TrEMBL record:
Coiled coil: none annotated. This is GGDEF domain-containing protein. The chain holds residues 490 to 771 of 771 of the full protein. Residues 24-279 form the EAL domain.
Length: 282
């Protein structure tokens, strides 16, 4: 057969593992191309974050989407992981930062002040070009730093700790907010939590998805909100899928809520349409 005539294919297709390896290499390669072409395969989706104190949506989380030219969607869970393993994440995050800050600047000039959260990885924080790029984008697009939040998971925050914490402090000095994403499923001890230069705790969705049904989740969430507030953090819940959970979070004095109950992540234009027809739900 043809595979047998081609040394490379025989090499790569020896077994399922090699095939998966090749597939990963192809995805990384295509992702690299998609970043360079910037032809719309990659775009940002924006998910509303409801300010529970004001009842208004004054913030979004920016989440990357990839629809390959062949029509396939690739999940960010998969390609972000591959981008991290291959080092491409630094370039990808540069693109994300540019696109999101451009969008926030466009909204500002249209009269809409909308804060935005950007997800980054440990490698971005360790990259000495990250902060200057962010600073450049803010200046070019006339966006005040306090409209931008950087979201990092516990794992990303703990990697190369000393350097990481200093880099986060430099970001904070710039005026951007720092959020600890997926809180509660990682390894952050309470001792470490108080040392981290963060502004926001973002409870992982595992505690929120069934909040309305689970007494245990209610205990965990209530305690974490209290702890977060006493440490001076704003607390956000992600994965709010029903109105009962939203009401509970309001009673528990959670600061922000995000989830499918409000809206799925949407492309910018659709988000603006959604916002136009939004009526206060809490
Ligand atoms: P994350 O930062 O924790 O983002 C929250 C994820 O939960 C998103 O998945 C979002 O679509 C999903 N979600 C929001 N509301 C609900 C809900 O009510 N129910 C459920 N079941 N899920 C909900 P998504 O967009 O697939 O992203 C997955 C992860 O990929 C993100 O987790 C983040 O770690 C990473 N990611 C996404 N975009 C970017 C990016 O631009 N840069 C980087 N570095 N990572 C990104
Ligand atoms: Mg996030
Ligand atoms: Mg999260
Ligand atoms: Mg996550």
């Amino acid at each position: 057969d043809t595979a047998a005539q081609d040394g490379h294919e025989v090499y790569f297709y020896q077994n399922g593992e090699d095939e998966a390896h090749l597939e990963r290499l192809e995805i990384i390669d295509e992702l690299k191309q998609a970043l360079q072409l910037d032809d719309g395969q990659l775009f940002m989706a924006y998910q509303p974050k409801l300010n529970m104190n004001s009842g208004q949506v004054d913030k979004v989380e920016a989440l990357i989407r990839w629809k390959r030219n062949n029509g396939d969607w690739v999940s960010p869970e998969l390609f972000i992981d591959l981008a991290e393993q291959s080092g491409l994440i630094v370039e990808l995050t540069k693109w994300v930062v540019r696109v999101v800050i451009t969008q926030v600047g466009v909204w500002l000039r249209e009269g809409l002040t909308m804060k935005a959260a950007i997800n980054v990885s440990a490698q971005d924080i360790a990259d000495s070009a990250f902060l200057p790029h962010l600073e450049d984008m803010l200046a070019i697009h006339g966006v005040p730093a306090n409209l931008i939040t950087i979201e990092l998971t516990e794992r990303d925050m703990i990697e190369n700790e000393e350097r990481g914490i200093n880099a986060l402090k430099a970001l904070k000095a710039l005026g951007v907010m720092i959020s600890l994403d997926d809180y509660g499923v990682g390894q952050t001890s309470l001792g470490r939590l108080k040392m981290l230069p963060i502004d926001e705790l973002k409870l992982d969705k595992v505690f929120i998805l069934k909040l309305n049904e689970s007494h245990q989740d209610q205990c965990i969430v209530q305690s974490t909100i209290s702890l977060g507030h006493q440490l001076g953090f704003s607390v956000v819940s992600e994965g709010v899928e029903n109105s009962e959970s939203l009401t509970l979070l309001k009673q528990m004095r959670c600061d922000y809520a995000q989830g499918y109950h409000l809206s799925r992540p949407l492309p910018a234009k659709e988000f603006i349409n959604w916002l136009g027809s939004y009526h206060e739900v809490v």
